[in-house]
Write a structure and sequence with these properties.
295 residues, single chain, mainly alpha, two-stranded antiparallel sheet
Length: 295
């Protein structure tokens, strides 16, 4: 069931994204090619799926969340482009393809990431993609800016880079990952809810609880896959975190305990959705998918 839903959502957001990569002049063609390459070269689109599913859970057609769905994927893609650079994680492979700085060059990759970040906020403010009121669009921009910036994803990456070779306890590890990975996942759910323009405060609180659990579960499962999967399946270098001596959940808790923790987080997410009816079923399916995925 999740596969069919994922395919529909991927098609919807990919169509909207494709229209954003039309270079306004010949001089900018290569930059736009690098931006398009960074976004349209595969990916599970988990964050746009969460946007659409949150909007749908509140009884609103998911198309109203196209701007938010594009925005979170653009921010996610920009973060990967920059994370893969030699100055950070120095990766050569992403989604089974050469990373952007390998397919183009480092300078072009940096500029492509910068461009994707700016484009994300343009998508949120575009009334064609985001037909919400101006007040709601402004609120959505604030949510994304906080999640993507130094108090969120960027801050988490800074902590991650500073943690190489160190032994973190579980509290410190979760603090890092709630910023690096969780912040954008939480923002995806909140943006979908805001895009519906139907969310009550108690619903927003329940969705936040759901998103916090899913965001952490996603990272725990990522750490598990770095141990158990292979490069071909992952689409990136298997064992990279171990090779860099990064703190991970399997290293801290043990592999089996990490798996149990991922399932516990899944159950927390599902519990948070108890007040919602069957319209929230895609959110429930996504919570299960996050800990069952193999890549």
């Amino acid at each position: 069931m999740i596969a069919a839903y994922q395919a529909r959502c991927q098609a919807r957001v990919d169509l909207a994204l494709e229209n954003l990569f039309v270079a306004p002049s010949e001089e900018l063609q290569r930059l736009y090619e690098a931006m398009r390459y960074s976004v349209m070269n595969g990916g599970k689109r988990v964050r746009p799926l969460l946007v659409y599913a949150a909007c749908q859970a509140l009884g609103v057609e998911p198309e109203r969340a196209n701007g938010a769905a594009c925005a979170v994927e653009l921010i996610h893609a920009y973060s990967l482009v920059h994370d893969d650079l030699p100055a950070m994680d120095d990766d050569d492979l992403r989604r089974g393809q050469p990373t952007t700085h390998k397919a183009f060059d480092e300078a072009c990759a940096i500029l492509a990431g910068d461009g994707l970040q700016s484009l994300a906020f343009s998508a949120l403010l575009d009334p064609t993609l985001s037909p919400q009121s101006e007040a709601i669009r402004l609120q959505m921009v604030q949510v994304l800016a906080k999640a993507a910036g130094p108090a969120g994803m960027v801050g988490g990456q800074a902590i991650d880079l500073g943690s190489v070779g160190k032994k973190l306890d579980q509290q410190a590890l979760e603090f890092m990952h709630r910023h690096k990975t969780g912040a954008l996942i939480e923002a995806s759910v909140r943006l979908g809810a805001l895009a519906s323009e139907q969310a009550e405060n108690d619903e927003l609180k329940a969705l936040q609880t759901y998103a916090r659990a899913v965001g952490l579960a996603f990272q725990v499962q990522d750490d598990i896959l770095d141990v158990e999967s292979d490069t071909a399946t992952l689409g990136k270098r298997q064992g990279a975190d171990i090779a860099r001596d990064k703190p991970t959940y399997p290293a801290l808790l043990g592999l089996e305990a990490a798996k149990l923790y991922a399932l516990e987080l899944r159950d927390q997410a599902l519990h948070a959705l108890r007040p919602f009816n069957s319209a929230a079923e895609p959110l429930r399916d996504l919570a299960r998918f996050v800990v069952e995925r193999r890549s």
